[in-house]
Amino acid sequence: MSAPDLSLLGLVLQAGPVVQGVMALLLLASLACWAIAIEKAILLGRLSRQMRRLAAAEGGAAGEGLAAEVQRAAAREWSGGRDPGESRAEYRERIERAMRDALSAGLRGVQGGLPLLATTGAVAPFIGLFGTVWGIMGSFQGIAQAHDTSLAVVAPGIAEALLATAIGLLAAIPAVIAYNRLILRFARLRQEGMTAIGAIGARLSARPPQAATPAAAA
């Protein structure tokens, strides 16, 4: 009787169809999470530059990107001037609200894929554990049929089953780390954007447009 192949590839090939399906699902989820993490890391670099442009008011409202979108939202509210009976504080709040809405919409549009990271991080270990339990059940059935409880008979089946849990952890751990880091960076960028919005709102509300009526500019 030949010795069982206990290499990683051998364990995968010798596993049952259910355990192989669990492994394949976890590997696909892991690949998707890595792709999302890399894409968001590149995107966050671009957003960081956009927030610096917004803080410095560079490029103006005629450019492209999130900074320009926020400045265009501010320009639309500012160009109409203050409404009759509207205080300067209310005028500033209206300008800043338009900018906050534009910033929030822009950030929501680039956060797609983060729920998959969170789901993979939370669920992958349990999916791997399901594959392990299923594989161990199969091993015990094989033991009962062979009437042999020696380690040589038990070890291959248990190793195949435990590999599913290991793959589940390998999929979950990077997904959790990536999700937490990305959420933190998005929160920081949002805070930087809010700080810039406050500065822009204060500047614009103190400088009414030329088209404003005398009453509005008062």
Can you describe what's shown?
- This protein has helices at residues 8-14, 17-56, 66-79, 88-109, 114-146, 151-205, 214-217.
- It starts with 7 loop residues before the first helix and ends with a helix.
- The chain is mainly alpha-helical.
- 80% of the residues lie in helices and 0% in strands.
- The longest helix has 55 residues, at 151-205.
- α3 (66-79) runs antiparallel to α4 (88-109).
- It has one domain (17-217).
Structure in a nutshell:
The protein contains 7 helices and no strands.
Mean pLDDT: 82
H-E order = HHHHHHH
Uncertain residue segments: 212-218
Q: N-to-C terminal Cα separation, in Å?
A: 97 Å
Tally of separate helices: 7
**Largest β-sheet summary:** none
Domains, number: 1
DSSP, total strands: 0
Structural class: mainly alpha
Report the portion of residues in β strands.
Answer: under 5%
Radius of gyration: 29 Å
